[in-house]
Write a structure and sequence with these properties.
There is one protein chain. The chain is an alpha/beta fold. The protein has two domains: 123 residues, Alpha-Beta Complex (Aspartate Aminotransferase, domain 1), CATH 3.90.1150; 254 residues, 3-Layer(aba) Sandwich (Aspartate Aminotransferase, domain 2). The protein has eleven helices and 13 strands. It has a seven-stranded mixed sheet, sandwiched between helices. Helix 6 links the parallel strand 5 and strand 6. The radius of gyration is 21 Å and the shape is globular. 50% of the residues are buried.
Length: 390
């Protein structure tokens, strides 16, 4: 008999998914299966409606009035690449933070080699950012501010509304990496003055892997050069790329089966309500932090206020490496975690945990209090066990 698994790696990808997600994908595969926007027959039209429903669901979640301003990509990484390579040119200046994921930093370091100036605002060791740092970092040639909404290492939320106000006031574009927050924390692109919002489908939107997208504020499609060009099913008489949304950024056949699942996952989130999901995850996070901090030898990396944190907790046990702890959690207690640098070396340098990293536990709406209690007990036993050289 298979051991009962406790899955606490939702910051990497959420699991389990709602039944609605796989049921929508199964329905598409069994009953539709056609290419959206490429033909006039009923199955193609139905596929197109599934894609539109997905756009409408995402738009509703983010407070976007026109669903055609949501373009679909394979993931948040591709969406960020569309935004960064589409907007920035040699001679431009971009501002970011020291807590970014490599999905932001690797494109920026590449663009730096192509003549783009990059300024990294230093966050505190707990991952917090003073919005005033943006005022000090901006130059005459600043074109873009790109910030993660919440760290995938500490869970610390960035002050998006304040940053959005500053960016809009000084006339600088504002791009947000919402990979960790979409579906788990309220997002309103108008209130937060976000111009470009990258999201992934497979985390707190409860869609499948291989789905994501980018919100593009009205007018930005005139500035944003497509990352890829090709067939769109529209304007087939022309060999030039369409200049309208979403076609300008959606060349090639879409992942329609994935979008069917994503749309269902987002509808699940909308049905529960982001506020309810947030409340439950905050409660789980508070209990996890409370339990871990009571364990002798455990070091937690947190901002100190769960109202300013999503359901991501990083910790270490003295005299044990993150890999040793994660292996013990898996092999002895069947608890799934993620050790290491979490594709965010800058964040770990900021925290003082580079190059070792941390152990990360991340809950979801489907995590229970019992799961959290089991994790705390497991960490207590691991911390009390024999150490290196013992």
């Amino acid at each position: 008999m298979e051991p009962h698994i406790i899955y606490l790696d939702n910051a990497a990808t959420s699991w389990p998914k709602p039944d609605e997600t796989w049921q929508a994908m199964e329905y598409f595969m069994q009953n539709v299966g056609a290419n959206p926007g490429r033909s006039g027959h009923p199955l193609s039209i139905q596929a197109g409606r599934i894609v539109l429903d997905g756009r409408e669901a995402v738009a509703e979640l983010f407070g976007v009035h026109n669903p055609l301003r949501i373009i679909f990509t394979r993931n948040a990484t591709e969406a960020l690449n569309v935004a960064l390579y589409g907007l920035l040119r040699s001679g431009d200046h971009v501002v970011t933070s020291s807590m970014e994921h490599n999905s932001v930093m690797r494109p920026l370091r590449d663009l730096e080699q192509r003549g783009v100036q990059v300024t990294v605002m230093q966050c505190s060791p707990t991952g917090t950012l003073d919005p005033q740092a943006l005022e000090e970092a901006v130059k005459e040639n600043t074109r873009l501010v790109v910030i993660t909404h919440a760290s995938n290492v500490t869970g610390t939320l960035m002050p998006l509304a304040e940053i959005g106000d500053i960016a809009r006031r000084i006339g600088v574009a504002f791009c947000v990496d919402a990979a960790q927050t979409a579906g788990a924390y309220p997002i309103d692109v108008e209130q937060m003055k976000v111009d470009l919002l990258a999201f992934t489908g497979h985390k707190s939107l409860y869609g499948p892997q291989g789905t994501g997208g980018l919100y593009i504020r009205d007018g930005f499609e005139k500035q944003l050069v497509p990352l890829m060009r090709g067939g769109t099913g529209s304007r087939s008489e022309s060999q030039e790329q369409p200049d309208f949304l979403p076609d300008k950024y959606e060349s090639g056949t879409l992942n329609t089966i994935g979008i069917a699942g994503l749309g269902a996952g987002v509808r699940f989130v909308l049905g529960k309500g982001v506020a309810e999901i947030r409340e439950k995850e905050s409660s789980l996070t508070s209990r996890l932090l409370e339990g871990l901090k009571a364990v002798p030898g455990v070091i937690c990396y947190e901002c100190g206020d769960t109202d300013k944190q999503i359901a991501v907790v990083s910790f270490n046990i003295r005299d044990l490496t993150p890999s040793e702890v994660a292996m013990a959690l898996d092999e002895e207690f069947h608890i799934m975690s993620r050790p290491g640098l979490h594709c965010a070396p800058g964040a770990h340098r900021t925290m003082g945990t580079f190059p070792q990293g941390t152990v990360r536990l991340s809950a979801s709406y489907f995590t229970t209090q019992e799961h959290i209690e089991s994790a705390v007990k497991a960490v207590h036993k691991i911390a009390a066990g024999p150490k290196k050289g013992g």
